Amino acid sequence: MKSTYFMLLLALLTSTAHAQEVTPLTQSIELTAIIQNPASINNGTTTTVPAASKSTITDASFLATLAQDEFHEGNYGSSSFPRGSKLVWIIPHPLAFSNNYYVVEDAAGQVLVNVSDLMQLQLTGDLIVDSFGMNNTTGVFVTPWINNYVATLSFDDTGAGGTMTFTIQGLVQATTTDKTSKDGDYTETVKGKWINATGFGTINGNAAVFYGGSTSSSEVTYTIP
Q: Of 78, 98, 137, 176, whose CB neighbour count within 10 A is largest?
């Protein structure tokens, strides 16, 4: 059950300027996987398991994986994305986690493919600790909206011909800043980051522990109602 405060916050924000907004947040992935070595040696006296290996998952490698997965599933017409493509998290304002999803966009911001068949993010525990100042008439933030929450990101591409699964959980800190203009609109900038995200999964069928996270950013101009 969501907290009473969270429900009041949701009602307040959806009754103002932010009700119709959808925020596209460009994601920058940086994860490290510590992978169990499947080899073992038993000479009758001693059993030896070699040291675990490490694999780094970056924006480039993760996008390459997503492209191959979606091509394998028939959802995208190429096994690679064009130069400048980016992973984008789409979330309706305010923090409507039940309706969020991931896409890959090209350098011009055009959606190439929805990748939510492979990955999902959910609020963990239904609690947000936040602070902000907001104009009650326009709904525009007069001081930054700062929220802290725990989120869980799950990924599984084994059904799409891939070899990786993981579920990571950690603290997310996000800051939303509004800047009004004389033209009757406002520019909203959102920046967020995972802090100490950790979890577990598999790579090539071998157990793996994951740590790291991602950063996110967005800048969108809206018209004040």
A: 176
Residues 93 and 184: their CA atoms lie apart, in Å, by 20
Higher pLDDT, 4 or 80: 80
Which residues fall within 8 angstroms of residue 150, CB to CB, at 6 or more apart? 123, 124, 125, 127, 169, 170, 171, 172
114: its two tokens: 């929805």
Where are the alpha helices (H) located in the chain, listed in sequence order? Answer: 4-14, 59-73
As a whole number of angstroms, the distance between CA 1 and CA 120 comes to 20
Domains in the chain: boundaries: 25-42+57-223
Total Cβ atoms within 10 A of residue 14: 15
Average pLDDT of the chain?
Answer: 90
**What is the rounded radius of gyration, in angstroms, for the C-alpha atoms of the chain?**
20
d(CA 145, CA 198): 26
Q: Which of 184, 218, 187, 179 is nearest to 90 (CA)?
A: 218
What does the alpha-carbon distance between residue 211 and residue 225 come to, in Å, rounded to a whole number? 42
Share of the chain above pLDDT 70, in %: 90
Return d(Cα 121, Cα 152) in angstroms, integer: 6
pLDDT digits (tens, 9 = 90+) for 13-39: 666 677 667 788 999 999 999 999 999
pTM for the model: 0.88
